[in-house]
Design the sequence.
């Protein structure tokens, strides 16, 4: 069997490569890890390459086989996030590297779910068109199945709604942090940057959208995708079977277990709000419910009455909107009806916020979760799966109710207790790696998290992605957490530094090696 | 103009009127003028300002503010004291005049509040925000006046928003393709639906009664809020006499039938023949006829928000009281609040219809013995009237049972099982000699739908009722029970102090099951004035006491986030007897009052640990681990409604 690792050792890219092995890990003065050559032999010859693309996933897994290395691409995307900093502009370079590395041939492409930060690369980077006829298999979550009409309809509705949210927000004058976060989520769902392009000073690397990516994957690569959910036996391309790889699908739950992915009738929740609001914005006259004669100003309600009457009116009608000595905000704005207007208007963006978040987690929960086994090594790729997706296989109980004790089922314990590699869900957000799962995970493996700090959430709100305490918890029990934003990458000769708050500690690496390349980090195990 | 009674030295002062007649739709505009759909409500008289705005300082006051947030305009407020309006008993129903909308929202909300207050035996108040101990007076999160915004937004939705201190009603264009009884694209106003107003007002009322029933700690909590709001709206249907009579005629007295007989039918073949039995699968198809008068309409009594449902393209009402056939499976299957809520609604209506059938069985036996038939849609007026009276009275009784039980629920982490226990306890407490077997009907109906209490060991009435304190508790001195119009500010402060000093004794804290160290909060204490079956007045006080712990999602790792875990008790305290009152100086010291019930959810013990795990699990599942602050666990009614 050809070992890919050896190839890398023989042909190190002196410009960018640094390595850390299980035996020795020293830090040089610049802070990068250097490793001695001749370290512990890779026992399996597997390699997992995490490209640093910013906030998004792009993984290349390479499996040695009698016929030479076989390559699997797992997702390829990036999104800008609410700060615009998520897309660091390296995805095209990363895809070019992948195309070189694989010689333009892939055994398998896995699409975990239809978010921009997992698929935009396929339409943004022209290299993928060159893969036509050279891909042996494509896997997608069952939710993408075109042949089940209700699934297709649902996906269309979701996209339509996301687009609606995006247009709605792009048209809104307000540029609060909340709006930006919503817009970023909506953009992620459509992959269309047009609506929000002007909002950030930073331009993304540009090009492509989710629909184009999915079209290419479903029809443009010359292979019919397979759609999977938990309980189905996936069909691995022959070359991978020959290599000795096996795979198991853990998620998403089957469509009839819909309560696990918390499907809500989003169309009725947000969709209606958007429909009508967009309608109103387009032609306000259509939705003025009453004759203009009924309109009035609150100031004039009681104008013709006595002073005493006016005083009473303010007292009773606006009791809690009156300025009080205690409330500074109210004091600054003495007109109570203005406060009422604000209260009524601000009740609605909150609706949108919740709805867009639901849409976001709904799509995340569609994630295809794959457990690979190769030479007794277990590798878990969890996509962006959130609670509903995890719990379906984590617990024995087939009810969403779940045992209140939170005790894992046999399968959950077995999978999580014997991991060698874990692709951290959803770029390190707390909602995507259940604590019960972290607790059940064994010691000493490597977790890779493709992320870019300061793209989503906020530290103040304890919702930053990646969530620092979660990264810490993952790094316990001699586990090594590798974040893509910990490494320096170069684009057009310009170096992009590691994220300031992403301290690298790879000293506990138990097995295998970590090698830093020009735009990626490799885990050889 | 203000309607304050005039005084003169020549004659006696005029009494304040007791009620104010106001017109409203019994259902919504889509029902047209038939069947008393345009009804006159007798709501309690309150002095009003234009809006309408209630002109008093009561804690249950409401104010209608007609600000249209979509068009950014205000609409002229209605002055219900205008002689031109007074003389005709309120404005006539009209979809095109916002002043009628304001009138209807005011009337139905007031009617709902009134009914709650009658059932509870006390005045309600709106939500009070969580406050640091010892802080008195108004805080920004306190709702002093419930604001009703009849045209707040363009949306197929209406929701209670504590942040906006009120209820936002939306309006929207009816579905272009399937508008039901509406014109395609016509404007539909949620504020003209009796059901929607009653439903939303109920959310606001319950939030005022129980602060922590909006904190999502288990999957029953949001569903409970929804279910109760639906139940309240549905039981109101039975007070509409004409509709009730018509439904009785068209169902041959079987009110639980889902489909009615048509207006007219040329031959029995055209009729929809429902299969026998109480429960009807709502999905059952109906046989269509080409003649409108021959189409079987759906039973309006069990249907909720018909116009809204149809205008949003559902081709049916929004929800129905008759869910699926009783089964104990749904309760383990449904987590979405409305679906889960509909299980509770269906269980309550199962109980209601069982008692209705049981209590009217003798009438039918007499009628059948005389050769009368119930399958032709031709019930004699006398029988129909008698059935209508019974049904209306029963509906009122069931409404009261459902509402009273809220005061017998634990203060936090409520479950359906707790609610069943509360219903049984309240019934045993207030009507111990009920001849109809109402508690039993509830138990059976709940059991058939898989709703069982978590902690009781047997499924018998006495085991399900909350037990009385198992040992003698110290009575609470210095409580002031005030009078039925509520406590004065001074009285309220006195009671707050009395309860806090009672809780300072470690012995009392221990006896009530509290942890020794943590602070105990007193979110509410309300005197209740209820009528005993013998007509005498009973005075109690319901008190909530709560402790809170901050629990990390992962033991020992607080930085991964934590959630508020609450435990506490609901106390029912009896007013001391009059002869005891006489022994003391009434203005200073009040004799100690006995605690009759301690309804608890502890922080500790086996059940406490189970609850902690359940909550940890549940909020993680909701994706609420991220973020900080207790507010994120609150129900967002705007999103919950998904179109109401």
Sequence:
């Amino acid at each position: 069997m050809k070992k890919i690792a050896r190839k890398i050792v023989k042909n190190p890219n002196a410009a960018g490569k640094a390595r850390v092995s299980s035996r020795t890990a020293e830090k040089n003065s610049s802070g990068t890890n250097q490793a001695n050559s001749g370290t512990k032999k890779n026992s399996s010859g597997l390699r997992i390459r995490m490209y640093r693309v910013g906030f998004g996933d792009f993984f290349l897994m390479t499996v040695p086989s009698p016929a030479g290395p076989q390559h699997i691409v797992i997702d390829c995307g990036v999104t800008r996030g609410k700060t615009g900093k998520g897309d660091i502009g390296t995805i095209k370079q990363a895809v070019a590297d992948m195309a070189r590395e694989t010689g333009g041939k892939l055994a398998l492409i896995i699409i975990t779910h239809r978010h921009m930060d997992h698929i935009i690369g396929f339409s943004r980077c022209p290299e993928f068109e060159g893969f036509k006829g050279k891909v042996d298999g494509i896997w997608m979550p069952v939710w993408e199945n075109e042949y089940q009409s209700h699934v297709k309809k649902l996906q269309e509705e979701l996209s339509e709604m996301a687009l609606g949210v995006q247009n709605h927000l792009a048209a809104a004058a307000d540029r609060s942090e909340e709006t930006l976060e919503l817009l970023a989520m909506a953009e992620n769902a459509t992959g269309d940057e047009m609506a929000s392009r002007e909002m950030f000073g930073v331009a993304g690397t540009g090009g492509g959208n989710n629909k184009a990516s999915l079209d290419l994957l479903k029809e443009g690569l010359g292979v019919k995708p397979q759609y999977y959910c938990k309980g189905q036996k996936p069909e691995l391309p022959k070359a991978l079977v020959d290599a000795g790889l096996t795979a198991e699908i853990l998620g998403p739950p089957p469509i009839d277990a819909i309560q696990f992915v918390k499907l809500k009738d989003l169309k009725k929740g947000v969709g209606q709000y958007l429909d009508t609001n967009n309608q109103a914005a387009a032609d306000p006259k259509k939705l003025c419910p009453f004759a203009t004669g009924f309109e009035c100003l609150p100031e004039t309600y009681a104008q013709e009455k006595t002073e005493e009457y006016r005083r009473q009116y303010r007292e009773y009608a606006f009791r809690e909107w009156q300025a009080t000595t205690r409330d500074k905000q109210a004091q600054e704005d003495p007109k109570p009806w203005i406060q009422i207007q604000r209260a009524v208007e601000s009740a609605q963006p909150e609706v949108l916020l919740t709805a867009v978040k639901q849409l976001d987690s709904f799509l995340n929960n569609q994630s295809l979760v794959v457990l690979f086994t190769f030479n007794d090594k277990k590798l878990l790729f969890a996509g962006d799966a959130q609670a509903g997706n995890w719990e379906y296989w984590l617990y024995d109980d087939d009810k969403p109710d779940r045992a209140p004790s939170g005790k894992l089922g046999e399968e959950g314990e077995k999978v999580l207790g014997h991991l060698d590699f874990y692709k951290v869900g959803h770029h390190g957000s707390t909602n995507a790696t259940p604590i019960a799962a972290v607790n059940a995970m064994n010691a000493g493996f490597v977790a890779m998290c493709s992320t870019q700090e300061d793209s989503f959430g906020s530290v103040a709100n304890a919702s930053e992605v990646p969530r620092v305490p979660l990264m810490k918890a993952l790094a316990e029990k001699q586990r090594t957490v590798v974040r893509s934003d910990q490494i320096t990458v170069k684009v057009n000769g310009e170096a992009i530094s590691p994220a300031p708050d992403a301290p690298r500690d790879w000293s506990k690496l138990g097995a295998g090696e970590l090698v830093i390349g020009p735009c990626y980090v490799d885990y050889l195990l | 103009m203000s309607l304050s009674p005039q005084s003169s030295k020549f004659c006696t002062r005029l009494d304040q009127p007791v009620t104010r007649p106001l017109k409203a739709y019994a259902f919504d505009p889509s029902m047209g003028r038939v069947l008393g759909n345009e009804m006159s409500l007798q709501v309690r008289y309150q002095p009003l300002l234009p809006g309408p705005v209630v002109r008093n300082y009561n804690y249950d006051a409401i104010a209608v503010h007609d600000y249209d947030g979509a068009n950014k305009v205000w609409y002229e407020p209605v002055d219900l004291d205008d002689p031109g309006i007074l003389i005709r008993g309120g404005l006539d129903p009209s979809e095109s005049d916002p002043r009628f909308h304001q009138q209807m929202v005011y009337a139905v909300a007031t009617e709902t509040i009134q009914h709650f207050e009658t059932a509870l035996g006390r005045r309600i108040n709106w939500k009070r925000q969580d406050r640091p101990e010892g802080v008195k007076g108004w805080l920004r999160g306190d709702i002093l006046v419930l604001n009703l915004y009849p045209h707040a937004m363009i949306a197929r939705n209406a929701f209670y928003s504590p942040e906006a201190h009120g209820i936002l009603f939306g309006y929207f264009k009816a579905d272009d393709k399937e508008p039901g009884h509406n014109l395609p694209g016509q404007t539909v106003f949620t504020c003209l639906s009796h059901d929607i107003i009653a439903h939303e007002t109920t959310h606001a009322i319950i939030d005022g009664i129980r602060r922590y029933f909006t904190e999502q700690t288990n999957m029953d909590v949001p569903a409970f809020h929804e279910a109760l709001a639906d139940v309240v709206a549905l039981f109101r249907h039975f007070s509409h006499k004409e509709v009730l009579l018509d439904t009785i005629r068209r169902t041959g007295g079987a009110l639980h039938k889902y489909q009615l007989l048509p207006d007219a039918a040329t031959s029995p073949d055209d009729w929809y023949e429902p299969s026998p039995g109480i429960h009807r699968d709502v999905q059952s198809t109906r046989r269509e006829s080409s003649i409108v008068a021959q189409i079987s309409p759906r039973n309006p009594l069990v249907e909720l928000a018909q116009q809204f449902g149809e205008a949003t393209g559902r081709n049916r009402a929004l929800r129905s009281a008759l869910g699926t056939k009783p089964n104990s499976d749904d309760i383990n299957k449904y987590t979405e609040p409305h679906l889960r809520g509909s299980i509770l609604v269906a269980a309550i209506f199962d109980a209601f219809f069982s008692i209705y059938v049981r209590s009217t069985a003798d009438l039918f036996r007499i009628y059948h013995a005389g050769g009368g038939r119930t399958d032709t849609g031709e019930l004699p007026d006398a029988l129909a009237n008698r059935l209508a009276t019974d049904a209306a009275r029963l509906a009122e009784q069931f409404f009261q049972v459902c509402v009273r039980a809220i005061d017998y629920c634990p203060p936090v982490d409520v479950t359906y099982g707790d609610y069943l226990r509360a219903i049984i306890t309240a019934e045993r407490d207030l009507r111990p000699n009920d001849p109809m077997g109402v508690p039993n009907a509830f138990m059976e109906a709940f059991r058939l739908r898989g709703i069982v209490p978590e902690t009781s060991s047997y499924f018998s009435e006495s085991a399900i009722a909350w037990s009385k304190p198992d040992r003698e508790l110290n009575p609470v001195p210095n409580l002031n029970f005030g009078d039925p119009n509520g406590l004065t500010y001074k009285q309220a402060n006195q009671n707050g102090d009395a309860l806090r000093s009672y809780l300072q004794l470690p012995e009392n804290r221990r006896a009530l099951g509290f942890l020794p160290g943590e602070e105990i909060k007193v979110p509410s204490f309300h005197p209740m004035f209820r009528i005993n079956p013998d007509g005498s007045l009973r005075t109690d006080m319901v008190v909530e006491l709560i402790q809170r712990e901050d629990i990390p999602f992962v033991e020992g790792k607080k930085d991964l986030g934590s959630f508020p875990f609450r435990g506490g008790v609901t106390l029912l305290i009896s007013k001391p007897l009059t002869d005891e009152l006489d022994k003391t100086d009434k203005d200073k010291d009040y004799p100690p009052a006995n605690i009759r019930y301690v309804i608890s959810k502890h922080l500790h013990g086996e059940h406490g640990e189970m609850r902690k795990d359940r909550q940890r699990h549940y909020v993680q599942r909701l994706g609420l681990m991220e973020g900080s602050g207790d507010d994120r666990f609150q129900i967002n009614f705007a999103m919950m409604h998904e179109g109401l």
User: Anything to note?
Assistant: Chain A has a mean pLDDT of 80.
